[in-house]
Design brief:
This protein is mostly helical. It is 82% helix and 0% strand. The chain contains 3 helices and no strands.
């Protein structure tokens, strides 16, 4: 395996590293999305049946907005880290 890596050009190695970093970033973002759905639902959804009432809908929207604010900050940090490779 090391020989195969050593046979790659620096550009090919860089492309592989960038692809791996992109995949890692996607996993981070997917994890955040799953956590957002779970956390916001636990925080906001009551036992009012199979639909969210107006208060619950508002709570979900606000909760998701906060997560998206954080997501944007994380995405900027990940992009900055990726750009430094």
């Amino acid at each position: 395996m090391d020989k195969a890596i050593n046979d790659l050009t620096p550009e090919q190695r860089q492309a592989i590293m960038m692809r791996a970093q992109q995949e890692a970033n996607q996993q981070v973002m997917q994890g955040m999305l799953e956590k957002m759905v779970s956390s916001c639902f636990k925080k906001c959804a009551g036992t009012s049946g199979d639909r969210l009432d107006t208060r619950e809908q508002s709570c979900m929207a606000n909760c998701q907005d906060r997560y998206f604010d954080v997501r944007e900050q994380v995405q900027l940090a990940l992009q900055k880290r990726q750009d430094s490779i």
